[in-house]
Amino acid sequence: MKVWAYLYRLYRQQARWLVLSFICLGVTWLSGAALLASSGWFITACALAGVGLISNLNIFAPSTLIRGLAILRTVGRYAERVIGHEAILRVLKNLRVRAFNVVAFRPARFIDSRRLSDMIHRLIADVETLDAIPLRILGPMFAALMTLAGCVWVGAMWGNNLIGITIGTSGLSVLMVSVVLAKKGQKRGAAVVHARAAQKVAVIDHLGGLAELISNHKQHESAQHLAQLDEQQTQRFFAQEQMASLGEHGVQAITALTTIAVIAVAWPDFQAPIIALLALMTIGLNEALGALPGALWRTGEAKAAAERLMDLELTEQHEATDARVASQAFNTADIVNAPNFNRLESLPASQATLGPVEIINLMCQRQPGKRDPLNVALKPGLPLVIYGRSGTGKTSLLETLAGELTGQQGGVWLEGVNLLTVPDAIRYPKLTLLAQSDSLLNMTIRQFLSLGLDNVPDATLLAVLQCVDLHETLSQTDEGLDYSLGIRGSHVSGGQARRLQLAALLIKEPALVLLDEPFRGLQADLVQGLIAGIEPWLLKRCSVIVTHDPKSLPSHWPRQVWPNA
Asked: What percentage of the chain reaches a pLDDT higher than 70?
């Protein structure tokens, strides 16, 4: 999809309100030019009447017109700001939601390839940059042409056709200058957007890795790199400001020359008040025409931001299309090769006894050394315990099984279907992954446990908390299930955070459970209680558990050292 087609689709829902705001801006600039012109006519006429050159001057009608134009200009400006900004804020709100949804549902391999910090920049800076297109590009261009047309008409009606042509020529001259400046400014604007993204990514990386930088005495080099990026970006902004200043002064010069030309054409065929009206109206065009150069060269920044966001959304659209196609093929395979799959989908969770999962010929990207592929048949109720030295890729193995990382070969088969070949939207409901790190959100316990689910009864929530030995602790609080976890789980201990994440898993009904150090940091007696609490849930499904302490787990659970020789 072309950039402008993407932008049209983006702004289409608020198009009427945006056009109305453009008209209000045009009314504002027209009122300003008319106010300047009528004031010039009135002051000149009053001066001539004072020396007796004009008799029977009606001062009430022009003074009323001047007051009316002043009010209209103020109202027009206010309406343009309110309507335009309200419309664009609605557009950007919808865009933020869409962009966030794209990022929120992407697997780890997607985020790794694009850098999380770069995605954050897209969600913040690039979205905000797109307000420039209607408010600083399309609106000013529409209003400038509207103002120019009005002034050309007044020049032809109150003066003559030559004056109208002169004013129109000035507008075309400004437009030509704006196009010339825009060709240079657009490239610079795009460079500003891309460099701004790189700059923010570098800042996030610097702060995120500051401990490692300090420990390796590299913090000064990183800080110098940030300073260099900042200096380069400052130079880009300075160049853009120079471009804007050149455009502004160029418009002023063209307007001044046009004013002199209008006076020269009108003199001495017209009375002095009319000449003053035409001259000051031409000067009043400067406000409208002065916006054209800046409007056009800003398209570089806006297009660059739009292209980045469009790439993000197009990726989602392509994957959604792939998901629909794969879903149709998947359903067909269910009927032909996996007759039990539909039964698993339709049975209530409490009645579903899920079948075996086979890991066949699986090789991971981060599997160290020359190792054999993993071949194992997982059975419900008998978790496979993976153990081995640190840094040997056990976490990467779980991420590969979950489809978060792309494996080198092999598959994970459930009911005759390879889960690693189906789209994320189909695979995720069939498995769950408990990561090694705790990831609690700033919400209540009820909200956290029910995340992604609808209408979970409190009795169910309390039951899973009982399974992880948190029910008694919860009962000691005044809030109960409405107890707030705090930012990053700051209101609970590390052990409680781990058990809360285990409790959240027990509400779900996946076919494959992947647990990375599920009992990390917990005391031995508590671990045994947790195993007893979650074992009935594990009996219905296949599981893989990564641990550094296999002795703490039941001896009848099968073991697999990793990496396998």
From this structure: 85
